[in-house]
Amino acid sequence: MKDKQLRHRETTAAIIIDTFGRYLFQLRDNAVGITSPGKIGLFGGHREGDETFLECIVRELHEEIGYFVPADHFEHLGSFHGEDIDSKGGTIHGHLFVVRDIPAEALSVTEGSLLIVEPMKLTEIEPRLAPTTRLALKAYLNA
Hints:
Elements: E1 8-18, E2 23-27, E3 40-41, E4 43-46, H1 53-65, E5 74-83, E6 91-102, E7 113-117, H2 122-125, H3 131-142
Parallel strand pairs: 1-6
Antiparallel strand pairs: 1-2, 1-4, 2-3, 2-7, 5-6
């Protein structure tokens, strides 16, 4: 049997809620080689070096939305470790956060595009959600 190199990811992501209570999602580029191309995802990314998961989400959000959110504004929603449902055959360790009162008009999205969704419209976009985004929203809404 051929040996497979398993991919392990350490990631963070945030559910972002704007000043009007709307959800701010990333409409992912439809490009080969990225996780969940063309799907609706959360902003976030991979942990670098020895940074903490909180430091990672602060950095990633600043890079991806062009708006600095201080670490003390993030609420830890939970963590997960196991099979990577977004990347078959790999493993993942990640932390999810929630951040509120972000002014959507102040954002400058650098990866994908911004998708603003009213809370009552979440069920309409559910089929287009990336798998981890679906799980994060379920955890948040059930908390």
